[in-house]
Amino acid sequence: MPHTQTASRLRPFGTSIFAEMSVLATQHNAINLSQGFPDFDGPEFLKAAAQQAIEIGHNQYARTQGVPALNEAIAAWWKRGGGCEVDPHAEITVTSGCTEALAACCLGLLEPGDEVVCFEPFYDAYLADVALAGAVPRAVTLRPNRDRSAFGFDETELRRAFTPRTRAVLLNTPHNPTGKVFTRDELALIADLAIEHGTIVLADEVYERLVFEPARPHISIASLPGMAERTITLSSLGKTFSMTGWKIGWAIAPPAFTAGVRAAHQFLTFASATPLQHAAAVALASEEGEAYVEQLQRDYAKRRRFLADALTELGFGVIEPEGTYFIMADHTAVSERLGLTNGKGEPADDFVMSRWLIEHAGVATIPPSVFYHDKMEGRKYLRFAFCKRAETLRAAVDRMRTAIGSARRVQA
């Protein structure tokens, strides 16, 4: 009997880094800046809407594409945000979070051997979803630009990634974990290549409202000329309304692609939680919902500024995020000052530095090399989540300041 019964297509992925770091955070009573969920609840009106939906009897299976009120609310939300007009019942599918939407897209639209262009570092589910479909990823690396003000990609590298076998581009903007918001010119290049090669685009836009630079607004690639008919736009409620545990997501696509998404969705979950869908419709359609999102964006902008400045003061090389609620920071200067190595006399990688912070500072982060094909590309970074209360971030910074300062004094 083999040691593992895990299917070979999933064996390379192991345990999710989010689960691994959260376990370590608990063991060391660490402040968890690793996993991207808030340490506060979403709005009271939204919880009340869910409770009301339960009380009035919305507790049985929903139709597989979503309860009508939510589909209609998503269509209106999408159009207000710069998307095009869509048929809410023929072109929108409600899923169990954006994670399920991604899996349904890959399983429902890709054939074994198809190639998928994706930008690394990537959310860890991307490669697993591509593997489940029997497809092959073609990675294009995002790297800091010359002045380290943002991440970008090399046009030549992107063009090389397209081959006669390319079926899809997996695009995430605003981008987790780098915080990059793709520019209109970058999106236009991706669109031109998709049209030239006859590929579709899977656009993960779950952080669509969490952007911070007026000069770098979020733009949906589906809104570009020629792209509405070849784009599947994915998003969710969880990030925008601080309800990550509700797992209410959606896929917006032309009917031909929607058919593929629903073909997989019906056998993955069939339908998402009915009362939460009714509450989600309230969130997306109400003035209360819009006011909440606007305030959340302002709050996150302040927390981004606080954490970015604090990490810079501590010696980390911060690449300012233009969106999401994550900061990627180069730990090289800090780990060198601390004298950390990987045990072989080589400079500390991201796992060494993240473990040091958990064990000595009581702060958990994510080592982002797990989000790269080429692990060397990510070994000098850590990912910090700032979707936390202001007091949580202050406590985490105080812990790091004390631990790093004490370690320097010991060495001195």
Which helices and strands occur, and which strands form pairs?
Layout: H1 17-27, E1 31-32, H2 44-55, H3 68-80, E2 92-95, H4 97-109, E3 115-120, H5 125-132, E4 136-141, E5 143-144, E6 151-152, H6 155-161, E7 166-172, H7 184-197, E8 200-204, E9 231-236, E10 249-252, H8 255-268, H9 274-285, H10 287-314, E11 317-319, E12 326-330, H11 332-337, H12 350-361, E13 363-364, E14 381-385, H13 390-411
Parallel strand pairs: 1-13, 3-4, 3-7, 7-8, 8-9
Antiparallel strand pairs: 2-10, 5-6, 9-10, 11-12, 12-14
What does this structure look like?
This protein has 412 residues and is α/β, with parallel strands linked by helices. It has two domains: 11-41 and 290-407, Aspartate Aminotransferase, domain 1 (Alpha-Beta Complex), CATH 3.90.1150.10; 58-286, Type I PLP-dependent aspartate aminotransferase-like (Major domain) (Aspartate Aminotransferase, domain 2), CATH 3.40.640. Helix content is 42%, strand content 14%. The chain is built from 13 helices and 14 strands. The protein has a seven-stranded mixed sheet with strand order 2-10-9-8-7-3-4, sandwiched between helices. A three-stranded antiparallel sheet has the order 11-12-14. Strands 1-13 form a two-stranded parallel sheet. The longest helix is centred in the C-terminal third of the chain and has 28 residues, at 287-314. The protein is globular and about 60 Å long.
* CATH level-two architecture of the largest domain: 3-Layer(aba) Sandwich
Helix content: 40-55%
Q: Spans with pLDDT under 50 lasting ≥5 residues?
A: none
Overall tally of structural domains: 2
Tally of helical segments: 13
- Supply the CATH superfamily name of the largest domain: Type I PLP-dependent aspartate aminotransferase-like (Major domain)
Sum up the overall morphology in one term. Answer: globular
Distance between the termini: 55 Å
Q: What can be said about the biggest beta sheet?
A: 7 strands, mixed
Based on CA atoms alone, the radius of gyration comes out at: 21 Å
Mean pLDDT: 94
